[in-house]
Amino acid sequence: MSKTLTVLHVNLAKGFRGGERQTELLIRALAKHFNSKQLLACREDSPLRDRLADVDNLSFVIANHQLSGHYATPKVDIVHAHEAKAVHWAYVHKLLKNTPYIITRRVDTAVKDKWLNQKTYRNASALVGISTLIAKQIRDKQWGEVYQIPSTLAHLESNPEEGERFRRAFPGKTIVGHVGALVDKHKGQKVLIEAAALLEKSHPNLQFVFFGDGADKDELESLSKEMKNVSWMGFKSKIGDYLPYFDLFAFPSRNEGLGSTLLDVMDAGVPIIASNVGGIPDIVIDNETGILVPVNDSSALEAAIIRLSNDKPLQAKLVEGAKKQLENYTPKKMAESYTSLYQKITAEG
């Protein structure tokens, strides 16, 4: 940075999902590569507090809702809103302190034309979509200047002992892995269960292994309780221990902003089958970095799993293509893009 900017990130989410992980990765990358002074406005009970406790030049502001924390916040150069409630917080902060803000949008549904949305988006200095689809959806509103900055892989650590223990639990099996919140309307686990049911007798060597937790956990486990080729592993905080031990990765999402989990799977060297929906095609280029299948189509997913599990050369080709693709999705690359945007906005101010 030509000038050390003070950046205030805002993430008011209660839990820790993809958007919070990307907030963490950006803050860490900015601290490591640009030595920037940063603040994070978040809930008092936000998991981000513990996860980021070791980051230099980062301080926290308690903001349990959109109207809290504003007067406790020192003067900053720019505010970065990372999720929906944070957008409202940033708008209020601009009204109170005239601080410019940017919005990063991560979900692949069009922003509703509500009065408050128009106000908050039009008053932002820049709008960012994490995928081609999301950036287009925002541009179509004509509410301001739109940039596209994708999410990043996490370079997850892997413990081989834990991974090999997991692998030994399924001797002689080809492991088809899935990682995601157990929320079917988003991640589409029922589609994968349907594909597993179609394959249970014809391909008994395939084992479908689900990682994650969520609102639909009981229903999904009930649907597959008689199926010997489906295993539920629960939520694992260190998912990097397991990814390299999958043979294939299935990602049947019904909607997806980008699907940053796919970047970590690519980084682990695992070939991917994913839905052709949302921002996924930005990452998964059909027959180059993975295989795309129509959304909500268990038969197409079944066919793709059979094809890829039987084709080692294709697996190797997809893994190699994916590794090249990852050069565009590193934390440093994301931090560089946001730093340029921060500098542009503050220079204009």
How would you summarize what this structure contains?
This protein has 349 residues and is α/β, with parallel strands linked by helices. The chain contains 14 helices and 13 strands.
How would you describe what is shown here?
- The protein has 349 residues and is α/β, with parallel strands linked by helices.
- It has 2 domains: 6-152 and 330-348, Glycogen Phosphorylase B (Rossmann fold, 3-Layer(aba) Sandwich), CATH 3.40.50.2000; 160-328, Rossmann fold (3-Layer(aba) Sandwich).
- 40% of the residues lie in helices and 17% in strands.
- It has a 7-stranded parallel beta sheet, sandwiched between helices. A 6-stranded parallel beta sheet has the order 10-9-8-11-12-13, with helices on both faces.
- Helix 5 links the parallel strand 6 and strand 7 (146-148).
- Helix 3 packs across helix 4 and helix 8 (189-199) packs across helix 12.
- It is elongated and about 65 Å long.
CATH structural class of the largest domain = Alpha Beta
Overall SS class: alpha/beta
Overall mean confidence score, pLDDT: 96
The CATH superfamily title of the largest domain: Glycogen Phosphorylase B
Question: What proportion of the residues form beta strands (DSSP E)?
Answer: 15-25%
Task: Quickly count the helices.
Answer: 14
What are the low-pLDDT stretches, counting only 5+ consecutive residues below 50?
Answer: none
Order of strands, main sheet, comes to 3-2-1-4-5-6-7
User: Which fold name corresponds to the CATH topology of the largest domain?
Assistant: Rossmann fold
N-end to C-end Cα span? 17 Å
SSE string: EHEHEEHEHEHEHEHHEHEEHEHEHHH
Largest sheet: 7 strands, parallel
Shape: elongated
Measured on Cα atoms, how large is the radius of gyration? 21 Å
Tell me the CATH architecture of the largest domain: 3-Layer(aba) Sandwich
Q: Helical content, roughly?
A: 25-40%
Q: What's the structural domain tally?
A: 2
Number of strands: 13
